[in-house]
TrEMBL record:
Protein name in UniProt: DUF4878 domain-containing protein
Polar residues: compositionally biased ranges: 30-42
Keyword Signal: yes
Species of origin: Leptotrichia wadei (strain F0279)
Key words of the record: Signal
Chain residue ranges for the region called Disordered: 30-49
Cleaved signal peptide residues: 1-27
Length: 194
């Protein structure tokens, strides 16, 4: 295999892994209720940093669970946590139901990752960038690192994950330029973040 093929496979696999990892939101009603209560208890005029510090412990727990699921090869767990608003949008674009979209995506991810094993997926909570969108939506951008084994070769990659507020919930999505295109119709303010 030549160097160009290795680099292309590395890029493709990283995109697949990062996309599978980070389109997530609260799947569990208790976790979601904790964040709802936290958001409702926030003070008016709260800064983005204050909002992030308030929800950071719960976001850490959720991201750690996602990491463990991915290392175990459980892509369904991450996919089941996608924001319903975004899932509905994607399903409409594909002229299918949300369940069909989930099933097709899970099957495709499983097939595409046959020769791949995620061995580590980590988030850098020390270097998070926080802010507010033009609409006042709080967000945090979290650096992400992933290590995979592909055909016996160890590959390291870096990306970004975004946690953001929508109503009384916080969601987590992949924050890569390629994915902002998909978000612009559902979350146009997030697509404008630089």
């Amino acid at each position: 295999m030549n160097l160009l093929e290795v680099k292309m496979k590395k890029i493709i696999l990283l995109l697949l892994v990062v996309s599978a990892v980070t389109f997530t939101a609260p799947a569990n009603k208790n976790r979601n209720q904790n964040l709802n209560t936290t958001v409702q208890n926030s003070k008016k005029g709260e800064t983005a940093k204050e909002a992030w510090e308030r929800v950071k412990p719960e976001i850490k727990i959720r991201l750690n669970k996602i990491s463990k699921d991915l290392v175990a090869g459980n892509y369904k767990a991450s996919f089941d946590e996608m924001p319903e608003k975004f899932l509905t949008y994607l399903a409409k674009k594909g002229s299918m139901s949300v369940n069909e979209l989930k099933n097709i995506t899970i099957k495709t991810m499983s097939k595409l990752t046959d020769n791949m094993k995620i061995i580590e997926n980590t988030y850098d909570f020390e270097n998070v960038k926080v802010g507010k969108t033009e609409t006042g939506r709080n967000y945090a951008i979290i650096p992400t690192k992933v290590t995979i084994i592909y055909n016996g070769q160890k590959i390291n990659g870096e990306g970004k994950t975004m946690a953001f507020e929508d109503g009384n919930k916080w969601y987590i999505i992949n924050y890569e330029k390629e994915y902002m295109i998909f978000l612009k119709d559902v979350y146009p303010d997030l697509a404008k973040i630089k």
